[in-house]
Model the fold of this input.
Amino acid sequence: MQSGILNAIRPDGSGVTVVGDDAQSIYSFRAAEVDNILNFPDQYIPAARIVSLEENYRSTQVILDSANCLITESERQYKKNLYSKNNSGGKPLYVTVEDSDAEAEFVVKSILERREEGYALKDQAVLFRGSHHSDRLELELVRRNIPYVKYGGLKFLEAGHVKDLLSILKWGDNPKNQVAAFRVLKLLPGMGPAYAAKCCDFLAVNDFAFASLRYFSPPSAARGEWPAFCDLIVNLSVTESDDAGWQADLGAVRRWYQPHLERLYDGLETREADLEQLEQISGKYPTRERFLTELTLDPPAAAGDLAGDPHLDEDYLILSTVHSSKGQEWDAVYVLNFSDGNFPSEFATGKPELIDEERRLLYVAMTRAKNNLSLIAPLRYHVTQQRKDGDKHVYGARSRFMSERLMATMEPQFHGRPEASNRFQPRSNKRLGVADKLKEMW
Done:
């Protein structure tokens, strides 16, 4: 539309100047196609003159070397080579980590180390492809009491669907928890504040015995759901809070909650991914009591509460999707989940033009960094719905964007847990004669 208006005002292009960067065209889902700028010069006769602005005043040269290497492999672009007069600093890091937990540990460790060096938290940012990719990190930040603000989505523990699920567990653990009770009861159709209050009063009269809920008369819209709900909450109350097998309760809650999630919320794909992460994270906690204690809920005002804006005098870490980070800059930037399927997204792999946009998206992420850049690639991703001591996982493939040329511009590192380095060491000096054993068996 803007192009049409411009052409109507100046059909011959006289006096028209357009400023833009094709390498940062990342909003095709809003109909902002890269062709708008790539095809602009050819709209006029003679063609418009292209002036490349190549000096960069933000990033160090070593970061620009990596960014230039990445974007030169794009199929369609205006050729340019960014340079900077700032030649300080080391190469960007390409960090492989054992899994998502190790990724969170590495990021937190690096952030705290830089804070000790004098970097404010506000001068550091963690970027990611999808909002739910920061779930593990957010829990680690909460555990370490590191303040943060998230752009491009809800904070994990402030998302309505996560609060819903945890509230069910909290009420099952403590029938006198009215905050959790009100939130859980209002998930049922037709159950408003008045009916929720009546239900809480009914439970109190019956000595907070969940079994008595079967005799409560819910609103007509909720009657079909009521028996299954009562069974669920009674089963939760039977499980001891220190029972080591409590993760099965979380799976039962998820199955009961799924139709209500679909009814109450949009954006199901991201929300379901959050709940899968929550179920997977639960395996780290030996008891339900420990799990709920470390993931304490603030009293919710309404389902889907948004993260509040920080005070101006606070220091806080920045978490952001790459799309929300455009136009911003930080001294240190950490990019999560730099593996195939995330960069590029698995949903973009069918079309070359989408792959090109994913490349530009990574370029935007890399060029947000002023002095320090880390691309972090987990080696494996754990699957959901397994025992707490289960180790089912899939391996993360190296991003197709990480070519040998790009790797040469970066410093590779590995970050793992101390016990991981000894995992494949011999546990005994005893030698077994396997050949002789087989001969005996034969």
The chain has three domains: 2-51, 93-153+311-421, 157-294.
